[in-house]
Amino acid sequence: MDSEVRETLGLRVRIERIKRRLKQSELAALVGVSQADVSQLELDKKLVSARRQRILSALGIEEAGNAQ
Predict the structure, then answer these.
(1) Which residues 6+ apart lie within 8 Å of 54 measured at CB?
(2) pLDDT score for 68
């Protein structure tokens, strides 16, 4: 069985955070959001745009819809 893993924004955030050897709480403290915010983003749950952008910017990730 050949199953393809779909790389969501949340998965990209998790992978990049782990590459940088950061815990969710450490990333949250760096960008001024809660650990729960980081968790919600990694789970592809809704998150206030400003908080989401702070996390993404810290990890150098652009949302697909925001590419210019």
Answers:
(1) 31, 32, 33
(2) 37
